[in-house]
Specification:
It comes from Candidatus Ornithospirochaeta stercoripullorum. Pfam families: DUF3089. The structure is a single chain. The protein is α/β, with parallel strands linked by helices. It contains nine helices and eleven strands. The chain has a six-stranded mixed β-sheet, with helices on both faces. Strand 10 and strand 11 form a beta hairpin.
Length: about 325
């Protein structure tokens, strides 16, 4: 189904301006935000940036000639790189990402712009595979649109045992994973504890009173795991288990850090991660209604995620080395 949809989008894409049709050449360093950043680590990371292009000029995909937006792209990566950089050598491609209005209009899964964004990420990932050590383990990670595209990579390529064997984990944070995804792609496996490998780590954070978002619409169930207690059950993980919410800037610096910020539980009806002990208006955003904590998915649980990257990597290495 996915391949057919992309084929249709490829035909439609013939009508899109040529600036968008020019695929990046990933043999050029200029088309990587990070390439082999942080050597001497035992695990590689292929990291996919979230949405930074707001589509203010009516564009549906980011232009790689837009240096201002590319600076924001690097900044967004810097905000989350601290979760991974102590454990991983980082690779992160520039790509012609979809712009935010496609999410706001709730058409991000049914627009030809998706095929353009995915074409770049797939090409960059294949380049990464070809030009890195085939025996090294790696992590896939993405937030928001980055998570959506990582999920597509998993669906399209990770039925290959050789790739699945090298996968430490895929951190698909801030995107939904549904029963249809798991049924159509049975090789996908969701994380069930803190140290299983070859699995998908995912969650979407919201207030207890939120029942709809552009990421997880009302009536949709998403599979996930609680990043505080690493359980897939609905029991409350108290805020004392939160080892540190870290709020970062575009340089990657931690502007403020707050241990014990929020407790969490997985909603049994939506599968979303409900954050308690905080007030929605304290984490408001012009992009999302109060109570949708999408922008804070990784910041609320920064230290727990940082620790988990190390735990899963060590588990993989202990099993394979």
């Amino acid at each position: 189904m996915l391949r057919l949809r992309f084929a249709v989008f490829a035909v439609i894409a013939l009508l899109i301006p040529s600036i968008l049709l020019a695929s990046p050449d990933y043999s050029l360093s200029e088309n990587w935000a990070y390439y082999c950043e942080g050597t001497g680590k035992s695990v590689d990371l292929f990291l996919v940036c979230p949405t930074v292009d707001m589509g203010e000029n009516g564009n549906r995909n980011m232009s790689l000639d837009d240096e201002e937006t590319k600076a924001s792209f690097v900044g967004a990566l810097n905000m989350e790189r601290g979760i991974y950089e102590e454990t991983c050598t980082i690779y992160a491609p520039f790509y012609r990402q979809m712009t935010f209005p496609l999410y706001a209009e709730r058409i991000a899964e049914d627009d030809e712009a998706l095929s353009i964004a995915y074409e770049d990420i797939e090409e960059a990932f294949l380049w990464f595979l070809e030009h890195t050590d085939e025996d090294r383990p790696f992590i896939l990670a993405g937030f928001s649109q980055g998570a959506q595209l990582v999920l597509l990579l998993l669906e399209e390529h990770f039925d290959e045992p050789e790739l699945q064997e090298r996968l430490v984990a895929a951190y698909c944070i801030g995107w939904k994973i549904t029963a249809d995804d798991l049924k159509e792609y049975p090789h996908l496996r969701m994380a069930e504890r803190e140290d299983d490998t070859g699995v998908i780590v995912s969650f979407n954070t919201e207030s207890p009173d939120t029942y709809d978002s552009i990421i997880v619409p009302e009536g949709i169930y998403t599979y996930g795991i609680n990043p505080l207690n690493w359980s897939t059950g609905s029991e409350l993980a108290p805020q004392t288990m939160n080892k540190g919410a870290c709020f970062t800037d575009y340089s990657g610096s931690i502007v403020s850090e707050q241990p014990y910020l929020t407790g969490t539980y997985l909603d049994s009806q939506r599968g979303t991660l409900k954050a308690v002990d905080i007030e929605p208006e304290d984490y408001s955003s012009p992009l999302f209604p109060d109570g949708v904590y999408h922008l804070y998915d990784y910041q609320f649980f920064f230290r727990n995620l940082e620790e988990n990257v190390e735990v899963r990597s060590e588990a993989w290495l202990a099993e394979h080395m």
